[in-house]
Design goal:
By secondary structure, the chain is an all-alpha fold. The chain has one domain. Helices cover about 55% and strands about 0% of the residues. The chain is built from 10 helices and no strands. Helix 2 packs parallel to helix 4 and helix 3 runs parallel beside helix 5. The chain is globular and about 45 Å long. The two termini are about 30 Å apart.
């Protein structure tokens, strides 16, 4: 499917249809797999209800057009920074007893770990969107994060600036 939209209203209608109207999960996933515009993926994610699970975010993460900004935004929205604030790096946290409190949300731990690893490995498209995580907006938050997790990759602090 070619995702050429002639105006922002068509984009809004497309996203609204997928998020609010389409009840067949497999149709939404197929549509997302075929999106070839990183900005459209970002817009979809920014409207996504994270209580709806992680199969759709996994689909977006695995879309070849998913860029670093979108992945970083999804990492932030899926509590990834809470994992980083636990210290020991993401893999240390994943294997710690603290993670048990997140077991109530199936797919969360795997999604955060996969997203983190894709960002660190630079395994994502470079897009034209920027994303500055909430943690980057406060020197106190940056200090606290670096104190418990001194090896945190700089991208999780600075975000993506265009």
């Amino acid at each position: 499917m070619e995702n050429n939209f002639d105006n922002s209203e068509n984009v809004r209608q497309f996203i609204d249809r997928l998020i609010y109207e389409e009840e067949d999960h497999s149709i939404v996933i197929n549509e997302l797999k075929n999106i070839n515009d990183p900005k459209l993926l970002f817009m979809f994610v920014s409207n996504y209800n994270w209580d709806n699970g992680f199969s759709i975010p996994f689909t977006i993460l695995n879309n070849p057009c998913c860029d670093v900004s979108t992945a970083l935004f999804m990492f932030d929205m899926s509590c990834g920074y809470e994992f980083l604030e636990m210290g020991d790096g993401i893999n240390g946290v994943i294997n710690s007893p603290q993670i048990n409190s997140y077991d109530t949300c199936p797919g969360l731990v795997d999604f955060v770990k996969d997203t983190y690893n894709r960002i660190i490995k630079n395994d994502l498209a470079v897009g034209q969107s920027e994303y500055i995580p909430e943690v980057a907006r406060s020197k106190v938050q940056i200090y606290k994060l670096k104190k418990v997790n001194p090896e945190v990759h700089e991208i999780f602090i600075t975000g993506i600036k265009i």
